[in-house]
Structures are given as structure tokens and as C-alpha cells.
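Continued from yesterday's entry.
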Amino acid sequence: MIGGYASGLPVQMPMIDIQEVGAGGGSIARVETGGGLRVGPESAGAEPGPVCYGLGGSEPTITDANLVLGRLDPERFLGGEMQLDLTAARAALQGRVASPLGLDLTAAAEGILRIATTKMSHVVRGVTTERGLDAADFALVAYGGAGPLHAAMVARELRIGRVVIPVAPGHFSAIGMLMSDLRRDFVGTWFTPLADASFARMEELYRAMEAEGREAVQRSGIAVADLTVTRAADMRYVGQEHAVTVELPLELFRREDRAGIKRQFDRVHDVRYGHSAENEPAEIVSLRSAVTGHLGKPPFERSRPGAAEPATGAMRGNRPVYFGGAGFVATPVFERTGLLAGNRIRGPALVEEHASTTVVHPGDVLEVDAYGNLIIDISRGAER
């Protein structure tokens, strides 16, 4: 469903389920006619971009707010390749947000970040809580240029206890392309009560889809290490309108385990909706098969081991950074390339790299893992 199950439109084809939010670094903050502060979805884009870029942008953005609060270094943006105009950012925030709302500059900038955090949090809830999952059971992986700036605030909003900042977060999406396999998905409608479903007929339908999938992978001309096949079915209780997709291990078909398929469906339904009906009959709506050709993956480099205390060479000094509840705090700044596996940093702190800055809030603890990822444990008692 594109646009959500409540108001979206159905698209009858397999696709990756991605939820987006209009709260990036270029999202514009403005005061609306009724006096409310709105952030996004309008964006200044990359050009002219935020006011601080100095490329002609006149409306303040999330990036300008981060700069005013000290979370970005105006002299070292993009590794020093681009200078940011702090004076222009402050003037735009003051004239277009702070003064119209009767706030001081710092409160206006913090308000922009809190609204952005709330918008991001709502999207995470949409793919967790609304699907029967507790966001607190997961770690939050933050990437892109702006993700590490806001990750700890989003995690705290959702009571997520751990944040992971991968190596080179600004290029993480490109790494995903290199790590992906060649996959072909197929789906065929087959309305059948589970109690009456013929395993022979199901096997025939699955094998036809899988044969087509194997042919498609081979036709691509890409050499694959091996092929794997997974099966699933869209199922629902008799009388229901909406179905859920249930992954079905191949051994269930080998054993012709009808009761096992029903248990798999009950379990998925319980996770999705918070309840199941073990004694109610179920029906199959459609059969799904995925054929995956596994490709070779580039190896990940391990980070050199270090002590718990970061080396002196990794320090860049201190600068005042604003944290709600604590005000501006003298905050140590680290160069990410100087951090080693095992290094531990207690917040507040900033970790800067070419395409991103990671904010470690007061009370949070960052540790560098064996592959150079930054693992941040979020303090339950830290400022909210």
C-alpha cells in the first residue's frame, strides 16, 4: 500500500517497503499563519541549500539549526572543503523563526530539532509499533550525512537503548548496493482454504515460479555463487479482508505439515495484530516465491585495536554545544579516523568525519567495535 494502509493505494507487485520522512538537513523551518512552527517537508535542497551554505538560500533549515547549536563546525564541514556561514544562519533563524515566535535564538534552534526528531520518531513507530513490534527491542542504525546528528535524540524518544553508526555513514546506501544479492520475486493469486489446500498443487505452483526465477537469474549474465529459494504465502482468517505474508520453511512442504503452516500464520498474525485465533480456519490468498542468486561480497576491514582511552591524536579540542536541559556545554571533539577498536567515549562528545558528525549526548557512552562502527549506549537518565 503506497501511502499507508488507512489511506494509501494498492500496488500489486513485490517491492521493498521503505518509509520516508521529510526531515533532512535541508528541510525548511518556517512559522505558519496560525503561529505554529513547521519543519519540512519543503526542502532547500543542495542548491541553494541551507542559508549557511552561502549559495543564495534565505530560509532557515535543520542544518542551520545544528550549526547555531554548535553541533557542526563551520570551519570543517565536509572535512574543511566547505565553509559554513554561522552569522547568516543566526540571522535567518532570528528573523524568520525566533522573533516571530517571541523566542531567543537558542530556543528556536532547539525547537526546530525537536520537531524534526518527533517527525523521524513517528516514521519509526510506523514500521514498528503499528506492526506489532516494540522499537525498544531493536538497535537504531543511523546513516547518511544527517542521521548521526539526530540518532541519539530519536532513540531517546523511542526508548531505544542502542544506536549504531556504521563506517562512512554518508556512503552507507552505496555500500548496501555492493552488499545486495540478485533476487527475483514472484507472486500468484490462489484463493484456497488451508484445510483443502493440495500440497501437490502448491508444489506445482511454487516450482513453476522458481523455475522462472532461476531462468531470470541466469539470463542476467551475472555470475552467482549459488541459488537459494524461499517460499511464503499471503494468509488470513476466513472472513478477514486483509492478509499477512507468512514465510514458510521448505520442510513444511516436505512433511506436508498443514498444522505447521497454520501455526506459522498464527504466530505472524499475533505479532502483527497482537492476537491470533488458533481454532479459527485460515485461507491462502496468494503464494510467493523468491529466488536469490548470491553474489560475492567485498570484505569489511577490521579496525586496529586500541585502549579504552582514545589516543591524544584523535582529539580536536573542545567547543560549546547546546544540549537541552544542560545549556551550552564544553564538548570534546574527536576525529573519527583517529579512533581505534575498543575506544570508549562518555558524552557529551562529537565525532567528526568527512561527510557526517555524530552527536553523543550527556550520559551516553560510545564504543568503537572491531570493524570501526560506533556503538552508542543511550542513557535512560540523560536529558530528553
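--- second protein ---
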Amino acid sequence: MMKSINILLVEDNEGDILLTTEALEEFKIVNELTIKRDGQAAIDFFKNLDGIENYPDLVLLDINLPKMSGQEVLMYIKTSEKYKQIPVIMLTTSSSEKDILASYRNHVNCYITKPIEVLDFMKAIAQIEDFWINIVTIPNK
């Protein structure tokens, strides 16, 4: 039986949002998906969480976001006593060494450069899900 998982997707590219949603549905990942389209909206989401059962189990975060960058969102999550245990995956088109290094310095759990091809992108999402849902043990809420 698949575990139920809550995912926060912070992404401003509508095409990538659609592909991620389709991949989650196609690979039958049982979850609740919350989508925020800019960095400020993501931080507001955390500021407005009212109970531990609402915490996302996993955050998929883009670097290049409107209003506030993915790095700023990452720093907010990882410097918060309440949220720092939540795994954050940087899922971005940037393969810049500077972005990769900054992400790990800010305590990202893993950094994945988005594949350009649709099928490869969907496979990558499926692998992320399989690893973080079925293989890794994450703290109970």
C-alpha cells in the first residue's frame, strides 16, 4: 500500500506544474498537492499553517521564482525550528554551480536539474516520488 503524502510544489512555470501533476497522477502517488506560484506565496503558506497535520511531507522547489527566490524560501524553511525537518528538493532548470552550492549551503536535501524532454521530466518526478515516499524514512508529523 502506498503512503499518503502531502507535497508543496513551488513553481511558476505552468507547463512544469501540469507535468508534475500528471506524473503524480500517472504513477498513482497518493497525496495532496498544494501549488504556490511564487516565493512569497510559499512563505505565506508556511506562516499560515495552523497545525502539524497540515505540514507538507515534501517540498518541490524551483530556484527562479517571482517575488522571492527559491533560495529565500529554502532559507526560511531550513532556519525555522518548526519546518526545518521537512525534506526540500530543489527541482530547477539551473545547472549553475553557484546555485547548486548555495542550495546545499542552505541545507537543501537534494538538487535535481529538470530534464528538458517531457518523458524524462515525468520519469524524474516518478523517481523522486519513489525515493522520498517508498525508500526514505521521514519523521512522522
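The mean pLDDT is 87. Residues 118-135 form the longest helix (18 residues). Will compare against the first tomorrow.
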